[in-house]
Amino acid sequence: MNPDARDTKGAAPFSRFEWLLAGRYLRSRKREAGVSVIAGFSFVGIMLGVAALIIVMSVMNGFRTELMSRILGVNGHVIVLPIDQPLTDYDAIAGRIDEVPGVAYSMPLVQGQILSQGSGTASTGALVKGVPQSALEKLTPVAGNIKHGTLDNFDTGEGVAVGSRLAERLGLLLGDRITLISPEGDVTPLGTTPRVKSYPIDAIFEIGLSEYDAGFIYMPLGEAQLFFNSEGQTQSIEVFVDDPDAVAELQPAIEAAAERPVYSVTWQSQNQSFFSALQVERNVMFIILTLIVIVAALNIISGLFMLVKGKGRDIAILRTMGATRGSIMRIFFITGASIGVSGTIAGFVIGLLFCLNIEGIRWFFSWLSGVDLFSSEIYFLSELPAEVQASEVVLVVLMAIGLSFLATILPSWQASRLDPVEALRYE
């Protein structure tokens, strides 16, 4: 009887018989050691590729979320700047801006670059921000992360709040005096002399962004106006909104609320290149790491082709015993797909466990190598972040399984097309 005539009959699709044969083909034999080695490399490749994709995508997501939350938490979402005339009526303007729907609060600001010195010879540059106490208390990244001291009576005192890294670099503690030197000082007959003044440290904060913790000093608005020769005025008004992503929609209303000639700059225009670079880097890393999964899928193809070639006699006997072409194709499909699915599941588990314990793993490898693997001076953040997004994990898992399934189709189809007469002719 022609074997093709029996293609419409046989075992049910994905029956126990097909799974049993596929399982036997996956197990190692001396004669098929090469196939087993290739299958092992395919499993490891897919596992590492999936784990690496999940880890890298989660770390990149964590970077972006942490940087955005901390940068936007400290810096205004809209910066209102004067045109022609200085901002002498900043209190009235800030009050009107606060009434705009969608605005959380506004903060009049005087700022300037200075040289800071401690009790010794150490000195470093810093940015002084003069702000009202009411606004500083709403600045959660600062007010919510006071390590030492307090912001009580900030407006009425002469003390300042400094970042933890700045205090550490200058060797200062709570209650010590920090000396600030501004090049924009007093005008004398001999020229402009730098302004030098010391202030007690009333609070030490730690935002978590090394750049800010090492370079920010908050000063009462009145003291900053005197220090920077800006009595009775501010340089700008920083506006914080409820939804930073919709800041462009609020920008016209904020400018209109000023009721005087002003122009404004949003956080998006100021930091667009930085966040765009993060997005490009994330996409490129995804493409590069996907190649690992593709290479592993190609290993599945080569392994199955070798298996089909070595199992020609078995396939011919199965066909003569009544196995259909569809059954043969499904047997080899299960064999190859099992490698891909098991590798994907293992990679998913490893990637998820790595992300959940990433900070502990970083500390372990830093201790093992004796090198700081995530220097806050370079990467801005004091801790390695990881944010696992379910949608991205599902995409990675489906992509890996899909590539594994595609890799099994051609070898499985070739196995199903094998002519049993030709296969047994020389046996």
TrEMBL record:
Please identify the protein, giving its name as recorded: Lipoprotein-releasing ABC transporter permease subunit
Organism, as annotated: Fulvimarina uroteuthidis
Tell me which family the UniProt entry assigns to this protein: Belongs to the ABC-4 integral membrane protein family. LolC/E subfamily.
Keywords carried by this UniProt record = Cell membrane, Lipoprotein, Membrane, Transmembrane, Transmembrane helix, Transport
State where the protein is found.
Cell membrane
- State the membrane topology: Multi-pass membrane protein
Taxonomic lineage from the root: Bacteria, Pseudomonadati, Pseudomonadota, Alphaproteobacteria, Hyphomicrobiales
Q: Which residues cross the membrane?
A: 33-60, 284-308, 328-354, 360-381, 393-413
Principal location class: membrane
Report if keyword Membrane is assigned: yes
Q: Enumerate the spans annotated as MacB-like periplasmic core domain.
A: 43-256
InterPro entries referenced in this protein's UniProt entry, alphabetically: ABC3_permease_C, Lipoprotein-release_system, LolCE_TM, MacB_PCD
| Residue ranges occupied by any ABC3 transporter permease C-terminal domain in the UniProt entry | 286-420
Any single Pfam family the record assigns to this protein:
MacB_PCD
